[in-house]
Amino acid sequence: MLDKIVEKTKERVSENKKVNSLDRLKYKILNIDVKFNYPFKKALSSDDIAIIAEVKKASPSKGLIAENFDYVNIAKEYEAAGASAISVLTEPYFFQGSDDYLKKIAKNVKIPVLRKDFVVDEYMIYEAKLLGASAVLLIAAILSDEQLEQYLTITRVLGMSAIVEAHDENEIKRAIDAGADIVGVNNRNLKDFSVDIENSIRLRRCVDEDIIFISESGIKTKEDIARLKENNVDAVLIGETLMKSPDKKVMIRELKNG
Ligand SMILES: O=P(O)(O)OC[C@@H](O)[C@@H](O)c1c[nH]c2ccccc12
Q1: Is residue 208 included in any domain, yes or no?
Q2: Does residue 44 lie in a domain region?
Q3: How far is the C-alpha of 207 from the C-alpha of 185, rounded, in Å?
Q4: Can 129 be counted among the known catalytic residues?
Q5: Does the pLDDT of residue 69 top 70, yes or no?
Q6: Does the annotation count 42 as an active-site position?
Q7: pTM over 0.90
Q8: pLDDT per position as a tens digit, 44-54
Q9: Band of the pLDDT at 32, cuts 50, 70, 90?
Q10: What range defines the domain where residue 101 resides?
């Protein structure tokens, strides 16, 4: 599955490059009024556990998640409920995401926005910047050590942050060696879709306290959050539970204060 997504993403990048070359994107970035001030990392640096709320229409493991996908209002509700940041899926073929969702959401909320996609080319980081994102996801399993290091540097030059996603000790070591300052452990195994939040708890001890540690996927209850908090997790990334909840405000408050 992951290989298929990567392949399709590479095709998408080469199509986009035909419309706007990388040089053209860089030129645009220099000519728009953008800030270079790392808001994503700042938003996750509070004392309490931070919630990154995800705007997600569908996924390969769950199919269609949101029948009613009023994405700008969903993002505004997340913000009003106290989410620290918003994650927006932009991958179109497997997650029914869109760059347009990200662009419109970033314009309509004040909290920082993460571009959730399968970055396989530096081009996608420049695109993310132009769309209004403050951060990108870098999945260690699909990038070489050199790419990780290079892409982290690009995000820094652009005033952005990167979550480096890891699934095991080896990927965590690679993330840290590449210079990651935010590490996310995906509780969902992208190879077989199985979910276990103990995965991030187990791997927490492999990451120093000065690196922001995020637990991603499969988080459903305030008990899950309490357990993650107890284990020094700095932030959680939650999609499906929030997308399926009819009152996102109540849900986020319950998760945060429960
Ligand atoms: O909907 P969930 O189980 O709460 O998961 C959200 C988020 O962690 C998940 O969408 C995700 C984490 N890492 C990814 C990488 C690619 C695509 C999606 C993801």
Answers
A1: yes
A2: no
A3: 11
A4: no
A5: yes
A6: no
A7: yes
A8: 988 899 999 99
A9: confident
A10: 2-32+49-257
